Every structure is written in structure tokens, then in C-alpha cells.
Amino acid sequence: MRLLFLSNFYPPFELGGMEQLTAEVAATLQARGHSVSILTSCAGVTSADARTNGVTRALFLDADIHYYSVRSFFLKRRAREAANLRQLDQAIDQVRPDVFVVWNMWNLSRGLPFHAEERLPGRVAYYIASTWPMDPDAHEAYWRLPASRPASEWMKRPLRARALAELQSEGCPKPLAFGHTKCVSRYMRDRLTTAGAIPSTAGVLHNGIDPAPFLAASRLDSAERTGPLRLLYFGSLVPIKGVHVAVEALGLLEQRGLGDQIELTILGRGHPDYTARLVERVNELGLSERVRFEDWVSRADVPAMLAQHDVFLFTSTGPEAMARTVMEAMAAGLLVIGSEVGGQTEMLMNGRNSLTFPAGDAERLAAQVRFALEESVLRVALARAGQETVLDGFTLDRMVDNLEAWLETIA
Questions:
Q1: Which of 44 and 154 is assigned the larger pLDDT?
Q2: Which homologous superfamily does the CATH classification assign to the domain defined by 212-393?
Q3: 3-state class of 360 per DSSP?
Q4: Do the domains 2-137+173-208+396-410 and 212-393 sit in the same CATH topology, yes or no?
């Protein structure tokens, strides 16, 4: 098959697991004899990187990933959207895809898949791992949001009316057919179909990981441990990821005299304001010696980094579709303590392969961390069961088998 993928980011320019999954799926499909091309954004890209190895990095995002620009909306948006459609037409003409695969749409214009549906009727496939089909795009979300201060709201109001009228006149948001659609979890499918955002015929295709490097790095061989219990969060540092809940839980354990037996590494990057608040809260709770902030590591270094810890904290407070970081941590032999949100409940089973807690509940998270600290034999048993969960149902090969079969029916 000739496949053309549309994704907002593509490694090495990435925000997290979905972009990494795109590259791994593409490489696996190519190894199986398929031709795979990628059309993605130019965010962070130099001209030398724009077109290499079947990857075209030329699309404009709807907005900066951290801050919205009113000036860009009025002065640059239409020209950028027109440029995006030209890039899409050029990619379709060059690749002549059997299937156009819409992969990751956050902060990309819906005009792109709309145009693809017009150019390639019946041959556009959607793999959905977020609520983007029912969410406002970056422009509508900004203009409908009240300003933080009364004076700012007074200035924003007339601009809001003009901006929303402009979007409406252009037929935004563009209506998409979603003729061939798979969601990453039952939770995501049910939420989107109930809202009428995608057809009821949409299916489920769980994502996966290559477990080999994580199994090789795993040190899951004994309940014996020296030193503090080593907790890890790694991923994006944005409020919905709930890293602040982990910090509050450690503060509670510090108050109860257990602080010297636990340490937490927070590894990742994200919104600078949120990161600054996390650092400030760590200092307020007297946890500066217990909590360490580390920058992002390369993909190749993730297995070794996981192997240096005992427990992985999945702390999201919002609807996660199906986090690959959880799979990686399980494969590496860490006990996962995770919040009960979204598609993660299809994988995490409290007391069977993990420990769970209600999203946002720092008290309950603290209790589960304490259990892992005091019940080392059970901690290892749960971690081992988690490893088996990944091997049984969440491998990359299993995912690509199912994806390949689905795309072939469309082609």
C-alpha cells in the first residue's frame, strides 16, 4: 500500500507519545513492504529539515503551542491555511496514496482532512486518540474564552465578534465524514459516538509499544531494595497531566514522617507557567530534597531511565485515551500507580496489575504510595502482572497487525 499520514508533529519534533507512535508505526509498516509518507507541521524545523526521508515538514499549526497570537489570527491565518492546502495537494499528487491516514490533529486545521476527503473519497482513515472531533479548534477556543481581567475583556469583545463571524463565514469547523474511523480505546469511542462527533460504526484499536528494550532494561527480579522508594513521572508538564497531584501526595507523606523514604523524579517539559508553579509548590512543601526535576531524555534512553525507578506515577486528571508511558513503565517492571481516567481503566486493574486512585485525589495517591513502600513483595507481584498485561495485549506488533488489516480493507 501507498500510505500518506497527516500528523501535527513527527519525531524528532514531538510533544509526547502519540508522535513517537506515529514514527514507530510508520517504520513497522515500511519494514513490511508498504510505502509510507508523512505530512506534518514545520514547528521547530529549519529549512534543511523540511523534506527528508519521506517526511514533509511544511504545515502551519493553528497557533503557537503555548500562547495564542491575535495578530497572527487577523494577519496570517488565511494565508497559512491556503499554504497548508497547497502542501496537501502537492503531497497527494506526489504520493498518490491508497489511503490517507489522519493521525494526530491537535492544533492542525480541520480544513486539511476535509480537503483530503474531497480529493480521496472513501480513502481517508482516522485514528483518534483524543477528543479533537468534538472540541473547538484553537481559534474558536481562544475567542470564546473570557479574558482574565475586566479591562482585557472589554478590549477583546469587539475583536471576538469579528473573529467568530470570520470563522463562521468560512464554514468553520469543517464537517468531516469520518467514513473509516478507529479509536484508541473503548472510552474514547463511546465518548465521541455518544456526542455524535463520529459515526456509531467507529471501531477500537488499542495502541501498543515494542516491549523488547524495556524488558531488556527491567530489573524486576526481587522485592529487595536499598534506599528510598524511587517514584517517577515522565511526560508533558501541563495541568491536565496532574503532576501537581503527585507533589501534593508527597507533601502529605512528608507530614507523616515518610519523606526520607521516598523520592520523586519529574522528567519532561511543558508549559513554562505550570512548570514554575510546580517548582514553587515543591519548595513551599519543603520537598526540594525529595523531588528532582529533569529535562526530556532521548527515546533511546527511556528504558534505562525507567530501570532506575521502582514506581511510575500516572496522575492525569482529564480524559486520557490510552497512555503509552504506562505501557512502557509496566514493560520495564515498574509498579504503576495510576488515576482512574478514560481509556486507562481498560488497562489498569487495581490490586491485580497496578494500584489506582480517583483522579485528583492526593490523599488516596499518598495511601497507594505508602502501600507500595511498605508491601514490597506485593509491589513486585503487581509489577510482574503489569508486565504480562503489556505482553498479552499492548504490543506494537499486535497493533500494526490490526492497523494493517484495516487499512488494506480501505485500500
A1: 154
A2: Glycogen Phosphorylase B; (3.40.50.2000)
A3: coil
A4: yes
Sign of CA dihedral 70, 72, 74, 80: negative
Side-chain-facing half-sphere of 386: CA atoms under 13 Å: 36
pTM higher than the cut 0.85: yes
Q: What is the pLDDT of residue 161?
A: 93
- Nearest Cα neighbor of 321 from 240, 403, 237 is 240
In Å, what is the CA distance from 124 to each residue of 108, 406, 410, 411?
Answer: 16, 12, 8, 10
Gap between the Cα atoms of 135 and 198, Å rounded: 12
DSSP code of 246?
H
Q: How far apart are CA 187 and CA 194, in angstroms?
A: 11
> How many residues in total does the chain contain?
411
Cell digits of residue 191? 465518548
CATH class belonging to 2-137+173-208+396-410: alpha beta
> How confident is the model over 120-158, as pLDDT tens digits?
999 999 999 999 999 999 999 999 999 888 888 898 999
Angle at 356 (CA atoms; ends 354, 357), nearest 5 degrees: 165
Neighbouring-strand partners of residue 59: 41
Query: What are 226-240's pLDDT values in tens digits?
Result: 789 999 999 889 999
Share of the chain above pLDDT 70, in %: 98
- Report how far residue 115's alpha carbon sits from residue 95's, in angstroms, rounded to the nearest whole number: 16
Q: Say if residue 116's pLDDT is above 90.
A: yes
Query: What are the domain boundaries of the chain?
Result: 2-137+173-208+396-410, 212-393
Res 219 pLDDT > 90: no
3-state secondary structure of 80: helix
Measured distance CA(160)–CA(125) in Å, rounded = 34
In the prediction, which pLDDT does 281 show?
97
Q: What is the pLDDT of residue 320?
A: 84
Q: How many CA atoms lie within 13 A of 111 on its CB side?
A: 21
CA dist., res. 44 & res. 53, Å (int): 18
The CB density around residue 261, as the number of other CB atoms within 10 Å, is: 15
Handedness of CA 278, 279, 284, 290 (dihedral sign): positive
